Amino acid sequence: MGSHESKSSGGGRSDPDVTVTLNAIRRIFRLLRLSSSATEKAYGVSLAQLFVLHELASGGPFSLAMLAARTATDPSSVSVVVARLVERGFAERGVAADDARRAEVEITPSGRELLKKTPVPAQQRLIAAIALQPRAERQALAASLTAIVTAMGEGESEAPMFFEEEHARGRRKKKVVDR
Q: Dihedral sign, CA of 97, 98, 103, 104?
């Protein structure tokens, strides 16, 4: 057995349910990957940034916690994306009108102009498709995927926004190389 194989690597190969499940995951991943690449190439922003901009445009201003809830992620992940949007002038940070201790984020006119040119982010389509499922099916899907991730040894790892971790790593590497 090669070093990259595990004892259970052959299990499930003849199980049609495993094949159907993997094909569905592959299709979702492909859609997100292609959407991410096309978004970055055409508009110069990551798919995660576009997703956050869409959420900011739908209401706001939002606290980071509210924005994290709206994007189904955690505040630290959304904070990284917001920082990039602020840096590019597509969003701005401010202080909440009702509580000077709370920071808020809102979309800028430049961010709204960008959104006029862009398609609906793939994440929003994925969230909408999941939300259409009956509650019992959503709960079963969440439990199954969580069990799979845990069985793969990733149950406690951070879950950044789609492709944002790789995007951030690529930027950091370039900065280090350029020095």
A: negative
